[in-house]
Amino acid sequence: MSTYEHVGTPSGDGVSPGSGSGRDQGPADARPGQISAVGRLAATVERLRSEVQAAHAAADGRALIELAKGIMIERLHCGPAQATRQLAELAEQAAVSQLELAVDIINQAARDRVADLADAFLRRTRAGHDETGPAVAVRLRTAESAALAADDTQAVADSLLQHALAPLGATAVAIWAAGPDTSLTLAGHAGFPADEAVRWRYVPPGVVTVARQALTERDTVRFVSLAETGIPSIGRTHHPHGGRVALPAGTGGRIHGVLEICWQQPLPPQPPVIMRQIEALAQLCAHTLEGTPEARGHGLSAAPHSPAVAELVDLADGLHDPALVLTPHLAADGHLSDFRIHHVNGRFMDPAGRPRSFVNGALLLEAYPMAADESELFDKVQRVYATGEPFRAQRTTLTALVDQVPLAAVADISVSRHGDSVLLIWRIEDETARLASLLQHAQRLGRIGGFEENLLTGEITWNGQLFALYGRPATDAPVSLHELTAHAHPDDSVAIGRFQRAVLHHRRPASASFRLRRPDGVTRHIRVIAEPVLDADGGLLSVRGAYQDISSQHWTEVALAATRDQLAHTEQQSAERNRLALQLQQAIMPPSRGPMDAPGLQIAVRYRPAETESLVGGDWYDAVVLPSQRVLLCVGDIAGHGIEAATGMVVLRNALRGLAVTGAGPGQLLSWLNIVAHHLTDQVSATAVCGVYDPWTRTLRWARAGHLPPVLVRGHEASRLPLVRGLLLGALPEATYEEAVLQLEADDTLLMYTDGLVERRDTAIHESLAQLLATAQAPAASLEHRLDRLLTHSKSDTDDDTCLIGVQVV
Questions:
Q1: Which residue, 161, 159, 153, is CA-closest to 178?
Q2: What pTM value is reported for the model?
Q3: Is the dihedral of CA 28, 34, 35, 38 positive or negative?
Q4: Domains, the chain
Q5: Which pLDDT band holds residue 300 (cuts at 50, 70, 90)?
Q6: What is the distance between the alpha carbons of residues 44 and 165, in angstroms, rounded to a whole number?
Q7: What are the Cα distances from residue 130, in Å, to 241, 265, 460?
Q8: Burial of 554 per CB tally in 10 Å (0-12, 13-18, 19+)
Q9: What's the whole-number average pLDDT of the chain?
């Protein structure tokens, strides 16, 4: 079992009998006789204190032994002398003290919580823990005996600390009594200085302390270190870093107070058996607190006809709202199980319409079983009864079961404790008033005003919202339907006339929209809806209806119409731009071209435009035989989409064709093309691969500008050409590009492509290139078949164009 090291406080004034300074005292001051007298006096006081404590412990032990003798007399049907001899002989045979044997006999006879705790400690002992079960049982029974024999709560606190809590490492204990107003009074304490107890003798309601938190939460509160919480409590200055445990002390569903335990050191997690032992001590405190002055008048038992209950009944009868007086109903084991409806006042109104006699005298959960589930009303009443803290809530649902049919009502709830009883008040919401309130709020939110016009008497009734809608004070006379044209815009007179004829002459419901001109000069768009009220002979009696302010809706419709027109115009312009860009792109870059005639080469090209026409890109390719019979091969990709990308592609493609006539190498061509992209276009940036093939030597000189390198297929293997340095086009005013030379062989195939062939959103580029090489090295019947297969197996998903050039050496 986990135990705590007990850190004691030195007794006395902290000066040992032989203490002193030779520099401060002369030889005449050092009187050995006086020092010896003081030491003898201190030793005598300490001896007497020890003897008193031993006498108290012996008295507590004798009480337990005498109780065990009584149990043996009852069980063995023997006399006191024989029971005394039997107890001594059994203790000698078991090699235990008579006190330990007496406690064991009491536990077997009682089978209460203390006995269960002793069994739990015994099981832990067998599992290899230090403290033995009998020792725990002895000190628990000793603490119980001393507490029951004590004449005040202070003696109970001393007994609990000495017998039960000090062995657990606790250094102080406080027992708080809870008042009806949730105040806390220090009923007993041990281990705290006297001045500290005086300062904390009373804690008013609302002050948050450790004990208050346990009372409010109705559960055990544990803090590893009090200093880390910042919550004030008794002994905080003397034990700032020590642990705290506070438990509500209650019986029969009522909390009479709080047991607060203090440790000198931080408190580590406790085993469950330790916490159960502390809970048993809190229950012992609850029985002690029942007789304290603070708890008197709101204890466990509640006499049905006590003066306090009679006063509460008189109070309930004087209320204008339905009220119930509830008294606690305890189960056979003494725990609170329900509340008895002791009295219902004359204003009582059952949500289900049942008479007062049906509810009066019944249990709360029998009369209203849904209170335990739906609104948690029973839990609220139980909490008020336990803590004394009142509870109020608005618009709570009350449900009653009548022939297994749930009938619900909405009410405002108030629950308060008065002595031993609880007063439950509810005010059921009037349905007519509630619907009128809902209608008023709905008219306000919808900017609607209602009216009724009596055509026989000329009386007109408006609600307040309609006066506000017209911009007229409530003291002005309402406007009749015949006068409606005078308050509307002249252009709306025709629509108002049709509305008046339909309602007043044809006697059928109708509606109309018009512009209302208010006295303040503001014009509002209004919709009026009306219906005629006819008598038994079909005569017109009155007209009733409503006006609604639809100004915001009108202007919203106008704005939407303008937005729709602008959007349609923008879409038409965008579609036209995309159509022109697509035509330009397709005119220059057809999707496919047949084999080209070139010296020593077979050339095939493929172009796959983006799937979405709105994403017209700038990918381009070119394969042309130069005047020198060398072959220019290139692919490129303009950044962006749309008409700008398409026109930029045309500029770079045509510029490269013109520059290639000079006979310059691919590095020089890309350098010139960079100047064109940077200076002669509107900030175009692009990537490209450019190669010049010499059919007589079968060599390819090539350079790249930020583009993916070509792929060489030789035999059954495919590989990427090594990267050469080259910045993308248009990034800098001037740039140089490195060239590489590739010696080709017969049947070699060279593939040049744009990134639309390999790019995927969820795949790294090196993985996509590996898949491209695996597809390219597969045998193909012809160059055309090889290119078609590459496009078919391409898994690109970036909605980008794709250009592909295939060159096969013959």
A1: 153
A2: 0.37
A3: negative
A4: 52-149 (no CATH), 168-300 (3.30.450.40), 307-429 (3.30.450.20), 436-549 (3.30.450.20), 581-809 (3.60.40.10)
A5: very low
A6: 28
A7: 27, 21, 94
A8: middle
A9: 77
